[in-house]
Each structure stands twice: as C-alpha cells, then as structure tokens.
C-alpha cells in the first residue's frame, strides 16, 4: 500500500533488520480490528467453549514452540533457555485461566432473597459480573511471550469473556505475529470467531486504540512516560475507561544488621543474581538496596561486587534502551558523593552492543535533593546501595520511595521468629510501598498462582489490580445486580436452581 510504514524485525545483537513483518496500522485498520473484535464478543459467551479455546491456544503455542522461541530470541537476545521457560509460563497461565473459567468463582454470584420483615423491607437482589467488552492490550518489551500477545493481560481478558486487540511491541513484531496466528487458529478450532484476538502495529495505532469508542478497557506494561500518556488519553475520552497500567518500579530492599551478620556473602551473591537476571530487565529488579554500615555490610557489598564482575556482559532489548541505560548510569555516577565500586557501562566486545552490570553506592547521611534521580528506575543491570547507620536513616530513604511492585526485607534468624519489634515495623513500612512483600528471598521470578499480586501503588501501577494470577480476571469484569426480577428473565447464573452449578453466596451462606 502506498505510504505504508513498514514494521521490521530487528536483531538487537547486531542492529540488523531481520525481516519485514507487517505495516503499521492506520486509523482505519484499528477501527476495523476493534469492530471485528466487538462482533466476536458473543462467541465468548459460552464458558465451556471459552475454556476449551484457552487450552487449545496453549497447545497451539507449544506445537509451534521451537519456532516461537527461536524467533523471540532473535528479536530479544533473551536466550533460548529463558524463553523456553517463559513459553511454559505462558501456556500454564492460559490453562490456569481455563480452570478459572470452568470453576465460575470469578463471576462473584451473590443472591439475597427478599425479606419483607426488615425495616425497610429488603427486595430480592441477585448480583454477578459481566465482561466489559473489547480490551486493548499493550505488549511489554521484556517478556515477548508472558506479557505480550499471548500473555497475562490477553489470557485474563479472554477468560473474562472479552475479545482482545493487542498493540504489538516494536521489539518483537515477528514473535507477535506467530503468537497471534496460534491464538486465532485455536479460536477457530474451538468454534469461536478468530477475531476474539487480533494484533495491530505502530505507535499511532496504540493511541488510536485507547481512544476508540468501542474499546472498554486497556492493559499496559511499559515505561512511565508511555503508560502515563495512554492513561491520560483513556481518562480524557468522552467516556473514560479503566486503564490497568504497569509503569515503573524501584523495588526497594532492606538488609538488617542481623541478616548481614549471619550471611553477608550469600546476600551479596543473591542480590547480584537478582540485579543481573535477564540483563536487569525484569520489572521487579531490585533498584535500591539499604545496606547497614560496618564490616558486615562491607562484606555484603564485596560479595555483590564479585558477583557483578563475574557476570558476562549482556544485550539489552534494543538500541534505544541501551542508550538510555548508559546515559542513566553515567548521570547517576556523576552525582555528588556517589561512588561506583563496579562501573556499569558498555561491554567491550567488537560489536559494542552489550552492557556490563554495576552498582552505585552512597551514604544515607549524604542524600539530598540533588540525588532525586536515584529514586527513579534505571532499566538494566544496575542497582543503588545506600549505606545506613540507624532506623532513622532507613525511614529517611524509604520516605522518598514511590509505589513499587515489590519490597524485600532480609532478616536474621532470631528477629524473623520474634513477634513485633523492629522486624514487624519494617515489614509494615514496606507493605505501605508495594503490592508484594518478599521476606528472606529475592523478588525476581513472579509465580503464577491464585494468591499472587503483581501490582502496587503508583507509579508501579495505575490501579490496585494484579496482572498476574487468577484475580487478574477481575480487571475485565463489571458487577450488575438484578432487583425483583422474575425467575424466567434472570440469567441462568442467578436462578434459584443454580442450573450451571456455580459457587455462590445465598442469603449469607456460601454454596459450592
């Protein structure tokens, strides 16, 4: 098409274009995709067909897994082992949501029969949840599978009964096309309209998507700048829509004196592994670590330094992110009284396209307004270690930390077993900052489990919802209550005989 803007797959290891994948979607293309998704909405109404579709989608992804992993590695440089695990997580996630659909608990059925003896008399009320409609999903750069076309936002929205239009990430367009083809094929095999899932490419397409009047909600994983722009656009619509965005996270860590006294070397090594996992491109990478002053804290940082120096340089997802990382560590290292025991920077290979990890250190007593940049996420393999002298120092540092996805606390054996005291106070303080609090572990690695919560106060996310785990489905549902409605007119989910066998609460009693 004349004037079309090509979308290229690019190898981050070399910077070379791999293949022309598609063209950027025009406003007319976005409109057509959204309208097709809206028309496909009724095909998701049957829960059995929906669950079968999700399981079939997982099977199709696995069947084409070798090609999908190879393509994702060529576009992301994340490595086949990591991506093979990510594919397993993605297919497991789809099957887990299929189980949720069949269980029906996500519908939240509540029935309160009429009670004329109350003052005032209580009418008959029956409540459950309905799908919102077409959902726009904005794929993430750092997870080309688990947070992209077949990822958690897509899986949970489909499980809720919402068709999805995905704005593919420009870092992995070929992977996006392969995954979309697998999902659309699975939909057809399950008897659903293939347009329950579609993909568009291009920055302008993403803006058009969030503004489209038939889009009912959006899910986003990415930068603060990009996410906030889309969030504002969603709020500025004539009819604002929910925007569930994951934007940025510092993920603070506190190491207590007792913890470093017991296992300084182990903590330094573990921290180094967490900071460099995926070349520091995990959204829950520890970006700020509070380390006590003194010999034990020194031993911890020494072990961290050894781990970082022993870690081979790695590739970032694209040249833009690499440039931002190099500029970010350079600017932070130039701040007054900031030291770099291990300098993060460019790798030394001939291609010059890798980065090496590092750590920046600063004493808590030296912090001032000049150091505000240290409280902003630096995407890549670097962390900031702040040395503290007492609990007042800890509070002064944490008071500057904004909302995060995770917060981590490492305790000594005895203080972890003791009720109350400093450990309990620190745990409460960190709970105020994050959606997931980790004790004596590391935050990288987000288990897909019913109890998981992957979210946090702003700017970690723009809502209080999770994007991982069973309750992620709640983002794409809205409750509705029927009052004094004749039995024959009620949805089957709300009828007295419970013809669908759903878990529900009737007159205050839980039924299964």
Concise synopsis of the structure shown:
By secondary structure, the protein is an alpha/beta fold. It has helices at 27-40, 47-63, 65-76, 80-103, 152-160, 173-189, 203-211, 224-236, 257-276, 295-310, 319-333, 391-398, 413-417, 421-431; strands at 6-10, 17-23, 109-112, 125-131, 134-138, 164-167, 197-200, 215-221, 243-246, 252-255, 288-292, 314-315, 339-342, 345-346, 354-356, 358-363, 382-388, 404-410, 434-439, 477-483, 504-506, 509-511.
Give a structural overview:
- The protein is built from 14 helices and 22 strands.
- It is an alpha/beta fold and 512 residues long.
- The strands form five sheets. A seven-stranded mixed β-sheet has the order 13-16-17-11-10-18-19, sandwiched between helices. The protein has a five-stranded mixed β-sheet with strand order 20-4-3-21-22, with no helix packed on it.
- This is Aldehyde dehydrogenase (NADP(+)).
Number of helices: 14
Q: State the helicity in percent bands.
A: 25-40%
Overall shape:
globular
Q: Largest sheet, if any?
A: 7 strands, mixed
Structural class comes to alpha/beta
Radius of gyration from the CA trace?
A: 25 Å
Strand content: 15-25%
Number of strands: 22
Neighbour order of strands in the largest sheet = 13-16-17-11-10-18-19
Oligomerization state: single chain
Residue runs with pLDDT of under 50 for 5 or more positions: none
Mean pLDDT equals 96
Terminal CA distance reads 56 Å
